[in-house]
Fold these 2 entries.
Entry 1:
Amino acid sequence: MLNYTSDECRDLFRPLDDNGKDFSKCQKYNLSGLDHETILANRDNLTFYGVVDCDEGWIFDRSVYPSTLTEEWELVCDKEAVPNILQSVYLAGFVVGCLLFGYLADK
C-alpha cells in the first residue's frame, strides 16, 4: 500500500507551472474515467492524459480568517485580476471626483 500525505497526493495529479518548478494551482491532469490502479501505475507519465482547468472547488487557508471575499467570490486563477481592476476603477473615480468637485467648490 502506498502512503501519501494529502499534499503529496494532490501534487501527484497536478502538472508543473509554466516556470517548471512549482505545481499548478489552476490545472490538473484529465483523469476522468480512470480507476485508481491505472492512475497510480502511470503516475510517472500522466502528461499523456492532457491537462484541464480545475473544476472541483478550491482549498482556502482558514487559519487566520474564517472567510474572505476571495473565497466567497472565488477570485482565483482566471478571476484573480478582478480585485486589482476594481481598485484601479475606484481610484480613477476618486481622482475624477476630486478634480471635478474641487473645481466646483472653487466656483
Entry 2:
Amino acid sequence: MKTKPTRIDGELFAAAKVAGEIQSRSAAQQLDHWARIGRELEAPPMITHRAIVKVLTGQASDDSRPDSAQAVIRVAWSGQISAKITGLNFEDHLQEAGQPWVEADNEGHAVVRNPGSSQV
C-alpha cells in the first residue's frame, strides 16, 4: 500500500495517539482506521450521518436497524467515548472538593489519595 504525506490537525493527531495506544496502533494507524470508518459511514445508503447522530443523541433507536448499520453506529459511538475519556481529569475536581479517590499504582494495587493530606 502506497502512502501519501498529509497535514493533520494537532488535536486530532493527539487523540489518535491516545486511542491508538489503547488499540495497540500507532497514531498513523489509528487515523487510517478512523478514515476507513468514515468512508464506510458515508458509503451505505441504508445509514446516513443524520441517522447516526439521531441514535447517538438518543433521538432514535438503534434496535430496528440492520446489524451492519448498528455496527457502524457502535464504532462511531466508541470513537466519541474514547475521545471524551481522553480529556477527563477528575483528580483536579476531587482535590478542589476535598474528596478522596482511589487509583491503581504501577503494580496495580489500590491506593487511596487524600487531598490536603500528606499521607496516601
